[in-house]
Input
Amino acid sequence: MGRRYLLIKVCSTTAVTGEQFTQALTASILKYFGEVGLSRINPKLIRFDSDGSKAVVAYAKDHAGEMQTALALIFRIGDSEGSTLPLKASGTIKGLGKRS
Amino acid sequence: MKDQLVILRNYFLDLGLEVFLRADLACSKREELLKLLRRFRSAFDIISVKCTNHNIALVAARDRRVDVIFFDYAKRNVWFDHSIANVSDATLELNTSTLVAASDYLALTKLMKDVYTAQQHKVDTIISSGCTSPFLVKTPTQMSAIGMILGLSKGEALNSVSVVPSRIVGKNVERRSRNYIEEGVKVVTRTD
Output
């Protein structure tokens, strides 16, 4: 099962930590795809830059659509309003290039 | 109001953005809706109707002046049923923001049912963010991804954020131009 990497811009009214972002993403996947979906998508936070509010997340290659949907359906991160914006997807972390 | 709209349109045109104006009509009586349509149809590029009850939904779906209909998913007594879909000339709009307000799965179920009914009756759908806050603004790709979990195929989901909205806008821009006479008849050249 191949993996892909997604560079995400995290937008929020307050500063967000990697843990809060992971919780929001996991909650979104659980809500819309369930535990089976979560295990299939298998998201993993690789890198989180809280200054630039950018995150790199790895996920199962065959479930890119579900991953995009789960990210789109994040409306709260931590205790504040927030959203995510996928910037670039790649097969390697290096491929995400300068934007990360 | 027209002056303000012209100022607003020009402001965005200066920034290089093409502007299309949309009016959302919400009323509870048929007569009221028809009155609002007479008043606002010519001033706006897109007219959408919030279906607050079944009668309004039927009138809005039948009326050629209405481009888009959408439903309030908090209301339990009105949804996009077969009787509406059967007569619908309008496009069904799915607001992804309804999923934010929903605390349970019922809004998702209703949206999925509406998509299924629309597919059965070949009614076009558009997906919009329906945003009330900058955080609810989504990219077209994200909205089409949400459309896919609602039951649209990949092609339909992509069309609902690209082809269908641009077709509605294009049709109305043509209708509002001075060369438009009626359905299928337009002025090609003018000689003074």
Observations:
- Chain B has a mean pLDDT of 89.
- The domain at 51-173 of chain B is CATH 3.20.20.140 (TIM Barrel).
- The first strand of chain B starts at residue 22 and ends at 27.
- The first helix of chain B runs from residue 2 to 14.
